[in-house]
From TrEMBL:
It comes from the Bacteria. Pfam families: Response_reg (PF00072). Residues 10-125 form the Response regulatory domain. This is Response regulator. SMART domains: REC. Keywords: Phosphoprotein. Gene3D superfamilies: 3.40.50.2300. SUPFAM superfamilies: CheY-like. It comes from Pedobacter gandavensis. The keyword Repeat does not apply.
């Protein structure tokens, strides 16, 4: 059964919009993912180092940080460098998210289709880059 491969996959969602965070969390939990949500970036690195998520979904525009700078921080730390990241944004596009040396494993513009979100997540967890 296809869903059994993603049971217990741990996903961290960093999104300041509570409604979007709640929707993503509910959708992913209904697909058998274990989801943790943060609405600020302040404790993100500590949380990642403690929980070791299989994937981070991160908004670029956060009230206390730029997701692209957080990606650089994540990739620059040897203990977290390999954790895949899916970036989401209402303002940025795939062509202008590049900031520094590191690229996310995938990008989705808001508003996004739920099926597109799930397809990206499954693809990234399988090793694809979008």
């Amino acid at each position: 059964m296809a869903k059994s491969s993603k049971i217990y996959k741990n996903i961290l969602v960093v999104e300041d919009n509570h409604a979007i965070l709640d929707v993503i969390t509910l959708i992913l939990q209904s697909e058998a993912y274990k989801v943790t949500g943060l609405n600020k970036s302040i404790n993100m690195m500590t949380h990642i180092q403690q929980s070791r998520p299989d994937l981070v979904i991160m908004d670029i525009m956060l009230p206390d940080g730029d997701g692209r700078e957080l990606l650089t921080q994540l990739r620059s730390d040897a203990s977290t460098a390999e954790i895949p990241v899916l970036m989401i944004s209402a303002r940025y596009t795939e062509s202008n998210i590049q900031h520094g040396a590191f690229k996310p494993n995938g990008f989705l513009a808001k508003p996004f289709d739920i099926d597109d979100l799930l397809d990206r997540i499954e693809g990234i967890l399988a090793g694809k880059v979008y």
